[in-house]
Amino acid sequence: MYKAEYIWIDGSTPTRFLRSKTKILGESESPPIWSFDGSSTNQASGNSSDVVLNPVFQCPDPVRGGSSVLVLCETLNTDMTPHPTNTRSACVETYERFSHHEPWFGIEQEYTLFEGARPLGWPSNGFPAPQGGYYCGVGANEVFGRDIVEDHLEACLAAGLEISGINAEVMPGQWEFQVGPLNPVAASDHLWLCRWLLYRIGEDYGVHATLDPKPVKGDWNGAGAHTNFSTKSMREAYDDIIKGAEALGKKHDEHIVNYGAGIEERLTGLHETCSYKEFKYGVSDRGASIRIPWQVAKDKKGYLEDRRPNANCDPYVVTKLITQTVCEAI
Ligand code: ADP
Ligand code: MN
Ligand code: MN
Ligand code: MN
Questions:
Q1: How many whole angstroms separate alpha carbon 247 and alpha carbon 170?
Q2: Which listed ligand is nearest to 101 at the C-alpha?
Q3: With 80 as the cut, is the pLDDT of residue 177 above it?
Q4: Is the per-residue pLDDT at 126 higher than 90?
Q5: Are 182 and 206 in contact (CB under 8 A)?
Q6: Same structural domain for residues 27 and 59?
Q7: Given this model, what pLDDT does residue 316 score?
Q8: Cα of 136 from ligand 3 centre, angstroms
Q9: For the chain, what percent of residues have pLDDT higher than 70?
């Protein structure tokens, strides 16, 4: 006997959220197709409420341990076609179309820890000292929630998820982890499970992680999901990096509307962002929409960083769009 935690993405608007429930399975059973009540997740009406859960990726469950597993599922209609809220199936299709380009993604997931209504570590009255020393900081006056962040890192590694680093962010209580590089579907699957583990581990501390792109109004950094991208040819030559950046510029508006709710509030042109109304790319430029890292410009090969996606973006949508836009152009 073992426990399988079935995890899926719901129909909440404007930003989807995660749901999960547990199935007990026999030793020799692999996780079968299952279903849930879609009328409770904004995915169906009450009179035709069954939505199908189709397992697409699984890994050890580091929270329960033993032989327990996490089972990431896509949602299907009862006729086995993709549910309207299933963004993964289109991502798979696009990846299959362009897999000969060998697209890779590394996603930087920023998030903010909240205790009650305030970011973790913030005074109950007023504000902490202004931003400056918190990014990659050390010390109890600058860093809040490191025990949670370390637990999360350990859990992701134990689950076999491709987490590639963590750091404290510019606003106190704000953190980042990176996933990848992996193909578009795997990067997104792993990111959604890393997010689930973050929320789940937060429960044990009474702390909630939010992907709100602008969790505190005013002169405080927002939270993004910088998306680093390369194809085989970009990893070998500079030309296609420039061509990719140019192609992204031509489809700027289409990308912006698909990069997460509330993006206008975050991409203001301040706080290391380029205004959502503008598109520019540049070497080392953290005020650009697309940054080409200095090492890439020096080596004349590598990858580009799309700095526009919000922390609350759907990685299936973002990686699908970037793969399509760039691979069609190079
Ligand atoms: P930043 O300097 O923007 O904070 P990070 O170190 O946080 O950068 O993140 C860089 C990300 O880029 C990592 O997730 C890494 O896996 C990813 N990355 C590195 N090389 C490539 C590549 N060739 N293609 C795609 N992603 C890559
Ligand atoms: Mn980073
Ligand atoms: Mn960051
Ligand atoms: Mn970055």
A1: 31
A2: 1
A3: yes
A4: no
A5: no
A6: yes
A7: 98
A8: 10
A9: 100
Q: Enter the tokens of residue 40.
A: 């409770």
Structurally, how many domains does the chain consist of? 2
- pTM for this model (two decimals): 0.97
Which residue has the CA at smallest separation from atom 4 of ligand 1?
A: 108
* Mode of pairing for the β-strands spanning 304-306 and 227-230: antiparallel
Report the residue among 178, 291, 322 best suited for mutation to probe ligand 1: largest number of ligand atoms under 8 A from its CB.
178
Which pLDDT value is given to residue 173? Answer: 96
Does 116 lie in the same domain as 77? Answer: no
Is residue 250 a contact partner of residue 244, using CB atoms and an 8 Å limit? no
Q: Are 152 and 146 in contact (CB under 8 A)?
A: no
**Whole-number average pLDDT of the chain:** 96
pLDDT at 2 over 80: yes
**pLDDT bracket for residue 132 (50, 70, 90):** confident
Q: What separation in Å is there between the alpha carbon of 286 and the centre of ligand 4?
A: 8
* Distance (Å) from CA 108 to ligand 2 centroid: 5
Altogether, the residues listed in the chain come to a count of: 330
Q: What is the DSSP letter of 81?
A: S
For ligand 1, say whether the CB of 134 is within 6 Å of any of its atoms. Answer: no
Residue nearest to atom 17 of ligand 1 (CA): 106
Question: Could you tell me the distance, in angstroms and rounded to a whole number, from the CA of residue 310 to the centre of ligand 3?
Answer: 11
**Which protein residue's CA is at the shortest distance from atom 1 of ligand 1?**
108
- Amino acid at position 291, single letter: R
What pLDDT score was predicted for residue 46?
A: 73
| Whether the CB of 106 sits within 6 Å of ligand 1 | yes
How confident is the model over 213-228, as pLDDT tens digits? 999 998 999 999 999 9
Using the mean position of ligand 3's atoms as its centre, give its distance from the Cα of residue 146 in Å.
16
Q: Do 14 and 67 sit in the same domain of this protein?
A: yes
The neighbouring-strand residues paired with 208 are 114
Our answer on whether the CB atom of 172 is closer than 6 Å to any ligand 1 atom is no
Q: For residue 149, what pLDDT is reported?
A: 98
The boundaries of the domain holding residue 177 are: 94-327
* Same domain, residue pair 76 and 100: no
